Structure formats: structure tokens, C-alpha cells
């Protein structure tokens, strides 16, 4: 029996790794094209074959998959149970995020589809085998299949670059780095920046940990920054080997907060003040102010303001909130944002 597995993955390396896994399990990979009815296509295919499954990256098909809550509303429960989600380059995946996705009825949420990661941890191959009724593959056979299917390496993704330099996942490296690079309160031009470190200090730590060059350390740091695991304190610079101030977003509060519950709190009667606002003569309906959200979250959850800002940006990275002009990350400033 031909059992299709639908693939909606944006990166060639992820798509090839997924194809190799699907074929190793004796399944048929089918790519889903971007389009306004791509989610409808997935739903119809899953309905036709009760043993089929779908591997979908949350950032892969912007026309068809708006965000995780939108997908949950548009896919019946029985179909969501056969959908595995990924965030290959869109940001970190913490255990609280995986719990959130399963509570919404999805089969699982993973950071990436990567052959090396799957050989180190067989949770994804085993889950796909379970969903499609296929026998679980021994690690040796899976390794042989990947070696044959992925003989020609692709250019490294951000996650691939981090793993190649540190032998760790992006999330793991950020956590280790957060405990290894000392963060202290600093001041620049009479403005205080709590709990931050210098780019030069991070480069020195990376070089000492992984015996790499300064340029490789900068590449690794920039990959963490691009994935939302590190940021410049006022979001004005990429990662540089310079005396700029940075923070890692891998704190316990950030990783453990349930984003679904946080969003519900923000949208409740005691949450954000949503109303029409104007700036320089232009109106922005049904929005709220970034610094008000930071103040509210800091008070509600007893967080430093910079950690409250981090959590809001995690919601933004999942596509659940946005700047009214889609021009800014959430900042502790008089900027307008809205729920999507």
C-alpha cells in the first residue's frame, strides 16, 4: 500500500533529510506547493488515507499556513494528530513549546529535520513510523539510508552551522553559553543595560570552548542571533567581535513559559488595552503599545523588563502578534503592535 507523507519544508537540506527519512520507512514523499489553499490540500490528502502524515515547517508556506493557532482552527482534531510541525530557522523550540503544540492536538513540534540530529535522537523517526503504521527502523539501517541518500552535502543552514561548530543543537548551545559568558549590568551614555555581555567576551568564550577562529565564532554568534536566541540590547547590530552589548534569550523564564497561556492572558479582559491609536496623522486600529505590554508582563510574571521583551518577541516569532507596519521586533518603546 502506497502511503503518502506530505512535505512542506522550506530549506533544501531539511526537505532532503525528510525525503530520505520518509523513503527509508517505505513511504511516499509528496511535496506541498505554496498557495492560499495549501492547508486545504493537506487536509484533503490526510482525509483520503488514514495512515498518511504531514511534516510542516511553520515558516514554510506563508500563503497557506498563517500561524500555529490558525492551523489548529482549520484542521480537524483527527487530522492534527497526524501533523508534525517544525521551526527549522524561525526560532528556538523549547519543551514548553512542544507541550503547547501537543495540547493543540498536533503530533509533535520539533526544531528541525536533520539527518545528524535524527541519528542522535530517534524520537522523530519513531513518531513518523508510529503515525503511519510502519516498523521502527534500527539506527544502523537509518544511518545507511541517510549516507546513501544524502551523499552530497548541502550548504549549511543556521542550525547546521551551529551543530558543525559545537556538536550541539542551537538551543543547547545558547543555554551552555548563557551559563558560561558572564552577564553584568552596564551603562552607555547614561543609559543602563542590565544583564548583558560584550561581543568580544562571547567570541573569546566560543573560541575557548570550540578551538575555532574568531571569524567562525562570529558566524556562530550571528547564527544564534538570527534564530532569536541572542540579540543586541537595542536591536541595532548584528553579532560582531566588538564592544557592543548582547543578551542571550535562553533564560529559564523564556524557555519554560507556555506561550499559548501567555497569549490568552494578554487577550483577556485584564490583559492588553486594545484600541484604535494614531501617530503622525495616521490611524492604526485595534492595537496596543509595546512598552505597555512589557510593563504588564513584567508585573504579572515578576520578570525583568528585558525578559518580558524576550517573551513578547517569542510570540512575534510564532506569528501570533505583529508590529502594525511589520517593521519592528517588540521593543520596550512607544511602538504599536496587534494580535494577528
Tell me the total number of β-strands: 13
pLDDT averaged over residues:
92
Which bin fits the share of residues in helices? 40-55%
Element-level helix/strand string: EHEHEHHEHEHHHHHEEHHEEHHEEHHEE
Largest sheet, in brief, is: 5 strands, parallel
Distance between the termini: 41 Å
Report the C-alpha radius of gyration, rounded.
21 Å
Strand content: 15-25%
Strand order of the largest sheet: 2-1-3-4-5
Oligomeric assembly: single chain
Write down the overall geometry. Answer: globular
Strand pairing plus helix content: what structural class? alpha/beta
Number of helices: 16
In short:
This protein is α/β, with parallel strands linked by helices and 340 residues long.
Describe what this molecule looks like in 3D.
The chain has 340 residues and is an alpha/beta fold. Helix content is 46%, strand content 18%. Strands 2-1-3-4-5 form a five-stranded parallel β-sheet, sandwiched between helices. The chain has a four-stranded antiparallel β-sheet with strand order 6-7-9-8. It has a four-stranded antiparallel β-sheet with strand order 10-11-13-12. Strand 1, helix 1 and strand 2 (28-31) form a beta-alpha-beta unit. Helix 1 packs across helix 8 and helix 9 (158-166) packs across helix 12 (214-226). It is globular. The chain starts with a strand and ends with a strand. The relative contact order is 0.10. The model has no long low-confidence stretch (mean pLDDT 92).
Amino acid at each position: 500500500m502506497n502511503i503518502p507523507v506530505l512535505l512542506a519544508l522550506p530549506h533544501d537540506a531539511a526537505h532532503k533529510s525528510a525525503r530520505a527519512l520518509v523513503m527509508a520507512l517505505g513511504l511516499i514523499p509528496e511535496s506541498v506547493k505554496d498557495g492560499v489553499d495549501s492547508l486545504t490540500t493537506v487536509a484533503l490528502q490526510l482525509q483520503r488515507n488514514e495512515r498518511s502524515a504531514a511534516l510542516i515547517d511553520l515558516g514554510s508556506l506563508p500563503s497557506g499556513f498563517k500561524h500555529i493557532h490558525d492551523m489548529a482552527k482549520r484542521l480537524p482534531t483527527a487530522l492534527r494528530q497526524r501533523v508534525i510541525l517544525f521551526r527549522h530557522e524561525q526560532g528556538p523550540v523549547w519543551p514548553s513549546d512542544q507541550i503547547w503544540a501537543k495540547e493543540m492536538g498536533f503530533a509533535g513540534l520539533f526544531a528541525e529535520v536533520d539527518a545528524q540530529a535524527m541519528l542522535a535522537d530517534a524520537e522523530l523517526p519513531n513518531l513518523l513510523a508510529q503515525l503511519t503504521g510502519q516498523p521502527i527502523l534500527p539506527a544502523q539501517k537509518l544511518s545507511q539510508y541517510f549516507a546513501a541518500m544524502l551523499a552530497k552535502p548541502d550548504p549549511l543552514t543556521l542550525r547546521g552551522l551551529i551543530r558543525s561548530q559545537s556538536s550541539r543543537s542551537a538551543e543547547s548551545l545558547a543555554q551552555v553559553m548563557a551559563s558560561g559568558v558572564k552577564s553584568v549590568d552596564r551603562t552607555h551614555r547614561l543609559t543602563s543595560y542590565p544583564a548583558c555581555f560584550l561581543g568580544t567576551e562571547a567570541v573569546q568564550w566560543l573560541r575557548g570552548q570550540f578551538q575555532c577562529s574568531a571569524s567562525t565564532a562570529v558566524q556562530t554568534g550571528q547564527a544564534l542571533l538570527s534564530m532569536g536566541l541572542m540579540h543586541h540590547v537595542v536591536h541595532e547590530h548584528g553579532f560582531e567581535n566588538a564592544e557592543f552589548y548582547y543578551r542571550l534569550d535562553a533564560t529559564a523564564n523564556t524557555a519554560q513559559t507556555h506561550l499559548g497561556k501567555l497569549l490568552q492572558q494578554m487577550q483577556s479582559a485584564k490583559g492588553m488595552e486594545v484600541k484604535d491609536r494614531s501617530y503622525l496623522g495616521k490611524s492604526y486600529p485595534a492595537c496596543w503599545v509595546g512598552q505597555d505590554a512589557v510593563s504588564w508582563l513584567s508585573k504579572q510574571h515578576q520578570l525583568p523588563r528585558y525578559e518580558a521583551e524576550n517573551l513578547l518577541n517569542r510570540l512575534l516569532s510564532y506569528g501570533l502578534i505583529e508590529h502594525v507596519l511589520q517593521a519592528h521586533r517588540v521593543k520596550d518603546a512607544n511602538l504599536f503592535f496587534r494580535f494577528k
